[in-house]
Design a protein that fits this description.
alpha/beta, four-stranded antiparallel β-sheet, six-stranded mixed β-sheet, 11 helices
Length: 272
């Protein structure tokens, strides 16, 4: 896979730091995400992983460093502007419109791609109708891709937890991203749901969308990742292929901490 500094990097972070008061949540963090890859970011709870995601997506502003996406700086962009550049994300905690249908949830996620203003909507212009038709088509494609089209008219709150996870990914995909950021997508899923998710993520990557995820399920990480980066106390302590990271002594010491967990980590690698 492409290494850091490559011209094929879609997302490049260099020397990124972020402090909250006296706490340095992210310290001198650098990472390149290669186009067409699946990259996982792992580490103990509190290592700073979600803060990195929040910096990329404009929720926080870095104190220092640079962040470039598709060749352009995203340092000063607001969250909706980040989405407009082609970065979509899901969250560790589901953020759905509970009382809207699945179809409405996905259509609502496309606001960043809609250009029709109040007057166009009021007059129901041809341009507005074309825009709506496109939004509906993208919503259908995303729901079908995630295998939940049959629930299109069901309220989001009535779906199973696993299907709600799928719905959030479908909503992100409907924004037509170049980079999809997933924050613990396998959290709370059973083994079969995790297996299905792995297939979905591979399919997304194979369609040309780059994937960057945080995940604690080592079976998922080892099963789908092209590259893995590891954080501890806000710093990156390792990066490489799943096999390289799996056998890195610093990772084993910092991230696993026990022989039992070490065995689980090894088994996840064997299952790759």
């Amino acid at each position: 896979m492409t290494m850091a500094g490559s011209e094929t990097a879609m997302l490049s972070l260099a020397g990124v730091s972020k402090s909250f008061g006296g706490l340095k949540a992210v310290s001198d963090f650098s990472l390149d995400i290669a186009k067409g890859s699946i990259t996982s970011l792992i580490g103990p709870n509190g290592a700073g992983k979600t803060t990195v995601f929040n910096l990329i997506t404009g929720i926080y502003r870095p104190d220092s460093g640079t962040m470039r996406f598709d060749g352009a700086s995203i340092m000063s962009l607001l969250p909706h502007q980040v989405v407009e550049t082609g970065i979509a994300r899901t969250f560790q905690t589901l953020r759905l419109f509970e009382n809207l249908t699945c179809f409405e949830n996905v259509v609502a996620g496309q606001h960043c791609r809609c250009r029709a203003g109040f007057i166009a909507c009021l007059l129901n212009t041809a341009a507005r109708r074309r825009e709506e038709e496109k939004a509906f088509k993208l919503a259908e494609e995303a729901l079908r891709r995630l295998g939940i089209w049959q629930f299109r008219d069901e309220l989001a709150k009535n779906l199973s937890y696993g299907d709600r996870r799928r719905l959030e990914i479908a909503r992100a995909l409907a924004t037509v991203p170049k980079l999809l950021i997933l924050d613990e997508p396998a959290g709370g899923l059973n083994e079969q749901e995790s297996n299905d998710l792995m297939g979905i993520i591979r399919d997304i990557r194979d369609s040309g969308i780059t994937v960057f995820l945080i995940e604690h399920d080592m079976r998922v990480v080892m099963g789908i990742s092209d590259r893995v980066a590891v954080m501890e106390y806000g710093r990156k302590i390792a990066e490489g292929t799943p096999e390289e990271v799996q056998h890195n002594p610093d990772v084993i010491e910092a991230y696993l901490g026990s022989d039992e967990e070490d065995d689980e980590f090894a088994k996840a690698g064997e299952a790759r």
